[in-house]
Amino acid sequence: MRTNVAIFIAFVVTSSAFCAVEFEEVTFGFNNGYKQGKWTPLNVNLRSQNEPVAFNGVLTVEVRNYFTDETIYRYATPLHLSKTDRKHKKLFIYCPKVSFHLILQLERSEVTKTSISEPHTTHQITPLTPIANKDHFVLVLAPSGDKLQKILNKKQLDEDSTQVHIKYLPNSRAMPTSWIGYDAVDLVIIREVSLTEKRIFKQQQTALLDWVQRGGTLVVSGGSNYRFLKDSFIEPLLSVELIREETIDKVPPILKQQFGIATSNNAVPAYKNIHFEPKPECQTLLGTKEQIHIAKRNFGSGQILCFSFDYNVQPFSELKAGETFWRWLLKIHGKSPRFFADKYAPYRQHKEKIHEHFLSKMPTQIPIIKLLSI
Fold this sequence. Notes:
The longest helix is centred in the N-terminal third of the chain and has 16 residues, at 2-17. The strands form four sheets. A seven-stranded mixed β-sheet has the order 9-8-10-11-16-15-14. It starts with a helix and ends with a helix. The protein has ten helices and 16 strands. The chain is α/β, with parallel strands linked by helices and 374 residues long.
């Protein structure tokens, strides 16, 4: 009996000593949200445990055509893992305009006796259906309990079947460290999150603002978020001065109208509001002379919007009222002019072929009157 136990223990120890490096977790996009023709983050967590030697090599990622398995793009990043170790790698992958899958592979740069016959560790990802370029890809940084996804996710905005896709960042640490990580995103919303450098690193702050300057739209919620916005890295970029936080016990008529809140005798819960004073660059999207409720400023090719109220409290968070408001806001201000052009991408995809066909028929098969009208 003792002999059997000893053999069993020896077997377990020997087996664990030759465990391969593992892909512990691999995530693509933001909760699988991505767009074709855009850059998307790929996060890879790797683990080694009781390896006979340390791993020195590269992590490679191949973007392959889903149907032909032909390699379209290839990426590589150095990787070092000690015998028992964990590492996180973040890459930015360009998503081709065809169906594709990703092949991740570990390749050693040092050939040792223990690794000569060792097979490459691989991992495969087949992304889900991409978000259409004409749709609104909204990325939200907010604590649990945010109701925006319930109110708006996959709702149709207009007669062109434009939809809204709401995805959440798990926390501020998941924010991209390069603007290119936001390439597929149309709009970022921040609510109830500390905006200090301890929570959002300087590199992440720069990445977010660089993305806005390149055409992104940033929305910050107000109300009790006053304590997070005040003295934050975003405050100097707002188009308003944050004067004070106040309690409102009656919804102003202009907000009732925009949210479609019926006028009644029913009491509305009091809510927190930020009193704004406009800066010279302020554009008032919703408000009166006494109070600005939504302020906007252009920032490079993008825009920054600030709410005086918190969209996640009643009555603004009620399903019908919230949907009415966000439909209006996203339809008119949800994309900067630079990003709004994506709406017409499906109609431009065959532009070159049409032009070539047009030239091939000139001048024999095209009436002169048509040429004059071009």
